[in-house]
Specification:
The complex is a heterodimer of chains A (about 290) and B (about 260). Chain A has helices spanning about 40-50, 95-105, 110-120, 140-155, 170-185, 200-205, 225-230, 235-240, 245-255, 270-285; strands spanning about 5-10, 15-25, 30-35, 55-60, 65, 80-85, 160-165, 195, 210-215, 220-225. Chain A has about 290 residues and is α/β, with parallel strands linked by helices. In chain A, the strands form two sheets. A six-stranded mixed sheet of chain A has the order 6-7-8-3-9-10, sandwiched between helices. In chain A, strands 2-1-4-5 form a four-stranded antiparallel sheet, with helices on one face. The longest helix of chain A has 20 residues, at about 270-285. Helices cover about 65% and strands about 5% of the residues of chain B. In chain B, helix 2 packs antiparallel against helix 6 (about 105-130) and helix 5 runs antiparallel to helix 6. The chains are: A alpha/beta (about 290), B mainly alpha (about 260). The interface of A and B includes residues 84, 87, 90, 106 and 151 of A.
């Protein structure tokens, strides 16, 4: 599914939060949404889920205008999943099973459908079936977060929006969570998209296909992660965002060697391999 | 929506009432409220209304804000009025149909009760509208101070009130966040039939309660970690001081109260 905004503006009170946003989210992509605090990232994400009832502009899904109610207000879109910041704070049910099945029950799904969906989603988030009868409030922070994310994945969204999904997680849990999301996306055979709000530049460079850069309520860039990190770091500087450390290292190597390093991927292993090659060349030339 | 829950919020204005010491306003309001409860005659009601309208005007708070503050209590007021009209008994029957007899005395009593509640609410709104919550708590603490000699933990009580007031906006923010998150999961209160809506608060109240308790635990630890103790013997950055204007205001209120009491 493709999600497209045309000239979308949002005003809250007398403050213009989003100005003339034009963007197209194609299916099967991992898109990161970056910008400083107050740049309008969360509002844009809420807009895409249909949580901003009144906005100027158009919202198209698969070439069709998104449905609105009789008063012309946007409605919550079931095909979009939304994982809020600290999603474990929204857990309220008595058992993990009930928590996971909440959104399906809200839609009126039967027991059989719910059981099938749960057995599909549990291995994805690395949780055991023995956990189903437990109270979610007894589990660890990381497990709670995975349950909260699973409770969104269970309704099989075509676009999954995550607001800082790895906030306050240790490095290992962070990696596990992001890999888990990557697997979920891969299972969708190019139909599932992810839009992730994040401040962790390393993760963004590692996982995203595209990046949306926001500044002062405007979308100032929509480009591939490779393009952004390797050639358009000015966009990051303009928004007050840092480069990943290993890209800084790459830039430093370019300065030291006095020539640009040819590379077309911003993934950590590719960049480090390129740096290593240049380093070896230099050592070899010194040796000669 | 949640903002309308707050009856009488502080409104920044430059008025005589804003400048008064919180203790003056608290005492003045309590005296006046006590007198209002004894008022019986219509003249007394008119005089009390004049007093309330005068203080409201002195506060320089737009009248619209007062009226909006009354909206949430409208159901209670209507219920009180209806109750007295339907079940108030007296000698003059105005209208009757089968078991329902409406007596003139009931109608009059209903109007009186509603009038009195309105006056009390308006007066309380003037107090909260002209006094910052924290200075209100500080005023309350100093007024109750004599009780600490009897072993009542006034400082802790006051700290509790200050914290409760401070966290109202935070908890409202949290409530909004949870409402939105559950809406995203398909739990939309606005599209539910009213009967279902009654029980639909579980997905909202449970997370709210859990996060609030967690926050309270963290706050306790933070307070302890900063060596706050129980607040005993603490001084304040802005000590309250009675000025000439306060004595004048209290004197006026006392005179008016006495007059109203005799009048009623």
């Amino acid at each position: 599914m493709a999600f497209q905004l045309k000239g979308a503006s949002v005003t809250i009170g007398d403050r213009q939060v989003l100005t003339e946003i034009d963007c197209m989210l194609e299916s099967g992509r991992w898109i990161s949404l970056i910008g400083r605090t107050g740049a309008g990232k969360s509002t844009l994400a809420k807009l895409l889920k249909g949580l901003v009832p009144d906005f100027k502009g158009e919202y198209w899904i698969n070439g069709q205008p998104a449905s609105r109610n009789r008063r012309g207000q946007m409605q919550v879109l079931p095909q979009v999943g939304f994982v809020f910041q600290y999603p474990e704070h929204q857990i309220f049910e008595t058992t993990v099973y009930r928590e996971l099945s909440f959104s399906l029950r809200m839609r009126g799904a039967g027991t059989e459908e719910i059981d099938k969906a749960i057995s599909r989603v549990l291995p994805l988030v690395g949780l055991a079936e023995e956990m189903l009868p437990l109270s979610p409030l007894q589990l660890s922070g990381g497990q709670k977060r995975r349950i909260a994310i699973a409770s969104v994945l269970i309704s099989d969204p075509q676009l999954l929006i995550l607001d800082e999904p790895t906030a306050a997680l240790d490095p290992l849990s962070r990696r596990l969570l992001l890999d888990m999301l990557k697997n979920w996306q891969a299972e969708g055979k190019g139909l599932r998209s992810i839009l992730s709000i994040s401040h962790a530049m390393e993760d963004i460079a590692q996982y995203s296909d595209e990046v949306l850069v926001m500044n002062g309520g405007r979308l100032v860039g929509h480009l591939s992660a490779n393009e952004l990190f390797l050639h358009r770091s000015d966009l990051l500087e303009g928004s007050g965002l840092p480069l990943p450390d290993y890209i800084e290292l790459l830039k430093l190597m370019e300065q030291l060697s006095g020539r640009p390093i040819q590379i077309d991927s911003c993934r950590e292993e590719d960049v480090l391999a390129a740096v290593e090659t240049v380093w070896q060349d230099r050592r070899n030339s010194y040796a000669e | 929506m949640p903002n309308s829950l707050l009856i009488g919020r502080f409104v920044e204005r430059d008025s005589v009432l804003h400048r008064l010491d919180p203790r003056t306003k608290l005492l003045g309001m309590l005296i006046m409220m006590a007198v209002f409860l004894t008022v019986k005659s219509w003249d007394g009601y008119t005089a009390a209304t004049a007093f309330v309208l005068l203080t409201a005007a002195l506060s320089r708070i737009p009248i619209g804000l007062f009226l909006r503050g009354l909206l949430p209590v409208l159901p209670i007021l209507s219920f009180a009025l209806l109750y007295h009209i339907m079940f108030g008994r007296g000698e003059t029957v105005l209208w009757s149909y089968s078991w329902l007899h409406i007596h003139a005395e009931g109608v009059v009593e209903g109007i009186r009760i509603v009038w009195r509640i309105l006056l009390l609410i308006l007066l309380a709104s003037v107090l909260t509208g002209t006094t910052r919550p924290l200075s209100l708590a500080q005023g309350l603490e100093t007024l109750l101070k004599p009780l600490s000699k009897l072993g009542v933990p006034i400082e802790q009580f006051s700290l509790m009130i200050v914290i409760a007031i401070r966290f109202i906006p935070t908890i409202l923010d949290e409530l909004n966040r949870i409402l939105l998150a559950q809406k995203a999961r398909g739990h939309d209160l606005s599209t539910m039939p009213p009967a279902k809506r009654l029980f639909a608060f579980v997905p909202i109240l449970v997370p709210l309660l859990v996060t609030t308790v967690q926050r309270a635990e963290q706050l306790t630890l933070a307070i302890d970690a900063r060596g706050y103790g129980d607040g005993r013997g603490r001084t304040t950055y802005r000590p309250l001081a009675f000025g000439r204007i306060d004595y004048l205001a209290l004197g006026t209120v006392a005179l008016l109260a006495a007059a109203l009491y005799g009048f009623a």
